[in-house]
Amino acid sequence: MNNIKDQENLNKKIVLLRLDLNVPLKNGIITDETRIDKILPVIKFLINNNALIVIISHIGRPNGKVNNDLSLKPICKNLGKKINKKIRIINDNIFELKKDDLFKNSEDQIVFLENIRFYKEEEENDIFLAKHLASLGDLFVNDAFSCSHRAHSTISKITEFLPSFAGLQLETEINALKKVTTEIKKPITCIIGGSKISTKIGVIKNLIPKFDNIIIVGGMANNILNFKGNHIGKSIKEENCEKIIKEIFETSKYHSCNIIYPKDVMVGKNVDDKSQVKKLDKIENDELILDIGPDTVNEIKNIIKISKTVLWNGPAGYFENPNFANGSYEIAKAIIKKNKERSIYSVVGGGDTVALINQMNAIKNFNFVSTAGGAFLEYLEGKELPGIKALN
Q: Are strands 264-268 and 288-292 parallel, antiparallel or unpaired?
């Protein structure tokens, strides 16, 4: 996989740069800028090398139709402020655009194409869209790791028509994930949360042979507690998971990997309630498990203390209510402490986990924070991602 920084001459070359700028918007206001901050290195690198940049990205799911609420305008404006440059957004129909239309104004160095998902051809991995876009540039750069599990035109098809390179962020992301999957410093621990165990089973099964400890928290853990014969009240639980859970325990036994799950919990009558510590045999019918309890927190902290590598995907509880955020905060603080001592390599991924770390203003206190959700998990599952395959 060729990296853009190895390309010798970028002077006046038109670079089609695929980014993932799918940031959360509320009434046109960006509520989390992490994804924009992460692509600044590639933008600055291309500017310093005098390249002409055409940014291709998407926001939301407009389903192939123009939707002004999902315009890239606010992102274009935000990026312009961050790099102190005026950036023009091109609203014209892409299929009517020609290469000469892009940089008519000699002052322009960066232009945005409007939301690429306004075109149904993007998600259809359409060859004609890919070919036409390729005719607008001299080379293609994918710096959208978080979209690279999608077989879309501007991710995997366009590489057939232009010299194609990995961006700086994409390479950093893959290197970080390699460190926790192939270049491992043991003991290695995975903390995995989220509500559905079925969506993470592939990851868990792929990691069991490589990891020393897999800690299951969040809604997923309710399935295990129930499987082990505990009463879980009205907590969320996935149906028909017994076979999956049995498999996890059998595989972990074979590979000497410890599976850790809550030994005590924090409950409430609803998600807005105050929290109450409960032993597993004391949970009432009308109670919801919404966080891990203090004994579980201590056990996890002790495991982090002896770990050399940690991978964290998914919070430990319903952290949107501060009464149920303690488990997640304590996990974060334990990893941060080890990070400051430089005695751990930490990779964190998934939208909710990143939101939690942002709340703590602690993104810089982890070795690598990934904003990728699906791509992050599919890579860990050992799947080949279309966007990476296309670059190789």
A: antiparallel
4-166, what's its fold? Rossmann fold (3.40.50)
Residues 173, 226: Cα–Cα separation, whole Å:
36
Using an 8 Å Cβ cutoff, are 235 and 289 in contact?
A: yes
Taking a C-beta distance cutoff of 8 angstroms, is the pair 111, 53 a contact?
yes
The pTM assigned to this predicted structure is 0.88
CA–CA separation, 280 and 356 (whole Å): 26
CATH of 173-380, one of 3.40.50.360, 3.40.50.300, 3.40.50.720, 3.40.50.1260: 3.40.50.1260
**CA gap 381, 201 in Å, rounded:** 9
Note the pLDDT tens digit of each residue in 105-152: 888 999 999 999 999 999 999 999 999 999 999 999 999 999 999 999
DSSP 162: S
The CA distance from 239 to 234, in Å, is 13
Question: Do the Cβ atoms of 376 and 338 come closer than 8 Å?
Answer: no
The type of residue at 270 is N
Instruction: Give the length of the chain.
Output: 392
Output the DSSP codes for 222-290: HHHHHHTT---TT----SS-HHHHHHHHHHHHHTT-EEE--SEEEEESSTTSPPEEEEGGG--TT-EEE
In CATH terms, are 4-166 and 173-380 the same topology? Answer: yes
Domain boundaries, the chain: 4-166, 173-380
List all residues 6 or more positions away from 336 whose beta carbon is below 8 Å from its beta carbon: 362, 365, 366
pLDDT tens, 362-388? Answer: 999 999 999 888 899 899 999 999 999
Q: Is residue 366 within 8 Å of 346, Cβ to Cβ? A: yes
Q: How many CA atoms lie within 13 A of 305 on its CB side?
A: 8
